[in-house]
Amino acid sequence: MATSTQSKPVTGVPIEISSVSEWNSILRHAYANNQTVIADFHAEWCQPCKVIAPVYANLASNQPFTYFLRVDVDGNRTRPIAAKYSISAMPTFVVIKRPPGEEVTENETGKGVVVDRLQGADAPGLARITNTHASRAYTPPSTLQTREAEKSKDIGNDLFKKRQYAAAVDAYSKAIELSPNSGVLYANRALAYYKWIQSNRDGADSPEARNALRVKQMEDGLKVTKLEERWGKGWVRLAEAFLEAGCEESMAVDQGLEGRRHNLEAAEEALTSAVGLSEGKAKAGKFPV
Questions:
Q1: CATH architecture, domain defined by 147-277
Q2: Active site residues per annotation
Q3: Per-residue pLDDT for 216 more than 50?
Q4: pTM
C-alpha cells in the first residue's frame, strides 16, 4: 500500500495510515479542498477484509479526486482512530466529507463529518457509496457578481456559437468589467480569441493583427490559471495560448526555433496539469462555459 510522505497526500491508491497525526493531516487537507475521504477499517486476521481489499484498490484507481485510506484497527498507533469512529466489525467503510455549503477560511482546520458507512465485505455496497460520494474534478462557480455581467456573458456565448468571435470578445470584456474575478469569463474570452485568430477575419486578417490577439489570448490564459489553479479547463486555455504563441507565423517575428520549442514545452506542461486536474483526460473545449 502507498504511504503518505508528501505534504499533499496521494490519490488513486489506498493509503495505509500509520498514525493519528497522519490521519488528521489527510482529513484536514481533504476538508480544505472539499474532497471526500473513504476509510477502510480492517484487521490483519480478517479474511473478508482481504477479500474486499482488491475491490477497494480498484475503486481507488478509478476515483482520482478521492482519498482512500486504510486503518488497521489493531495497530498500536491507529487503534484510537477505530475507537473514535466506534468500529465494532471488520471491514467497516466510513465516508467523511465537508458538510454541504460549509465555507472554509484560509486557516480552517476542520476534518469533515461522517456521511455514510458500510459494514462487511459488500462489493456492490462499497461501489454504491463510492460512486455516490466520490469527489469530482473541480469546477469554478459560474454565477457572476451582477445580473448585467450574466447578461453580457450570455450574449458572448450566443455570439460565439454564431462564430462572431470579435463581438463575443467585446461581450466577454464587458462582463469581465462587471465581474473581474471570474475565471470562467477569462477562459471564455481566451477561447474566443483563439477562434478569432483561426478565422483570419474581422480584425484577424493580417499576421500583425493575429499576433496582437495572441498576446491578449496569452494574458487571459495566464489570468484564468491564476484565478482558478485547480480548474483543468483553465490549463487547456493556457495550453492553446502557448501553442498559438509557438506557431510558425508568430515565431517569424519572435525568437525563431528556440522560442517555438519553449512555447511547445510550456503547452505540454499546461496540458499535463489539465489532465491531472480533469477526469483522467483533457478536452479542448469547442464552446464556452
A1: Alpha Horseshoe (1.25)
A2: 46, 49
A3: yes
A4: 0.70
